[in-house]
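To: structure subgroup
Subject: Chain for Friday's discussion

All,

I'm putting the inputs and outputs inline so they're searchable in the archive.
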Amino acid sequence: MNVSFEDYEAYLLCTYGNSVTEQGLFMKLVEEIGEVAEVLNMRAGRKKVNGEDMQTQLANELADVIHYVVGIAAINDIDLSGTIIDKDKKAAVKYHHNTCLESFLMSRKE
């Protein structure tokens, strides 16, 4: 099963409603980014491995990061998909990319 940003934002808005603040979600985001750094340090041999599967642990921590990013967007009524596509269009022009995300997605539907 796949989930869209729109669906995830709606779910998190329903889950959090008015019960959390963007500052609270941001603090959780920072915590989760630290946990991603820990896993990456373990994978690079700079930190002792705790015995868990590193791939699964990294996947879980990245999912947590996405959760809080999308949560912040949801409670601030930000269309994350639209913003990502618009920002990528500008970056594609700025950095002279051969394609942009919108074109890439359109070509996959054909």
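Points worth raising on Friday:
The chain has a mean pLDDT of 95.
The longest helix spans residues 22-43.

D.
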